[in-house]
Amino acid sequence: MKTLEINGNTGNSKIYLEKSYTDVAELLKGKRVVVITDENVRNLYEEKFPEGDVITIGTGEGVKTLKTVENIFKKLVELEFDRSCFILGIGGGIVCDITGFVASTYMRGVRFGFIASTLLAQVDASIGGKNGVNFEGYKNMVGVFNQPEFVICDPKMLKTLPEKELKIGFAEIIKHALIGDPKLLEYLEKNYKKALHLDPDVIGSITYDALVVKAGIVNADEKENGDRRKLNFGHTLAHAFEKTSGLTHGEAVAAGMGIAAKFSMRLAGFSGKEEKRVYEILKKFDLNRNVDFSCKEIKEAIRKDKKKEGDHIYFILLKKIGEVVIEKIPLSVLEGAIDDMC
Ligand SMILES: NC(=O)c1ccc[n+]([C@@H]2O[C@H](COP(=O)([O-])OP(=O)(O)OC[C@H]3O[C@@H](n4cnc5c(N)ncnc54)[C@H](O)[C@@H]3O)[C@@H](O)[C@H]2O)c1
Ligand SMILES: [Zn+2]
User: Which domains does the chain have, with CATH numbers?
Assistant: First the structure.
């Protein structure tokens, strides 16, 4: 069975890539368990949930709030849940982010793990120990670093996932290839059709390779003081696009990566030939949306980005496929480049 480990200061996390979600009971022996999940995942998978209480939240980014966290705390108190218990999040990135935050703060922290049920959660959101909620319109503004004890990524669960959600995961897989694994990019270029049809071998292989990139970066810089910023490739602009153009996260990340690749030619010596490969791979995964954006709104959104430090922002550029540089760029330079694009 393929596994990976995250060894963080906040704990160790074991990631199971070929374990069936129905085998989670093996990891929970003798523990009182409460499952946190969302409505959709509960409707689809409740029959196979491990024994225990279930707390269900709504769906969508709007539920990722302190209010939801408070409601969960209330239920945990009602259930007389104490520190010896175990919290299991079963769902996508939203369930994992909320579950991790609840488990890290309830009674100063209880044990927790995840069954990641979306492709994005399997290749990105459930891995790496960032947990938290949105606050006052700012994404992931309140949260903690804390590693789940385990994460199960079962490709079978992806069969019920809407196509739109799958593409969000593919955008992050492409990101991991671009920032850290040229061979993964070649593999995606050759096998994109099978990937889009969820061929189990291809999905297994690309999920593992994408996670090797993420796990390597997180193990070197758990709390994002340096290299972990690489994972934000394409994301500074993506967050702005998501706010202003109504794109999905995946489409916004894809657009952000496309533009970051163009900036990379100008600012980091990235070749035109490789920039074309970035464009082509996004197209293969049908992620090459034209973005209709207002420059003013984009600039405002960037000014509100929490990765900003004073008048500078860390911007991730590609030197070549698999190699990035983190440039601390004055906002004025980035805004100039945005004006040029407009
Ligand atoms: N903590 C991190 O490091 C990190 C990294 C990336 C993203 N995130 C966060 O992840 C969140 C997005 O995660 P997401 O894209 O997984 O979204 P999500 O959790 O909203 O899930 C997407 C939709 O798919 C449904 N769903 C989940 N599993 C399903 C399945 N197997 N079959 C059918 N439907 C299913 C959900 O109910 C939901 O409607 C964002 O809030 C983002 O900030 C966190
Ligand atoms: Zn992302």
Answer: 3-160 (3.40.50.1970), 163-341 (1.20.1090.10)
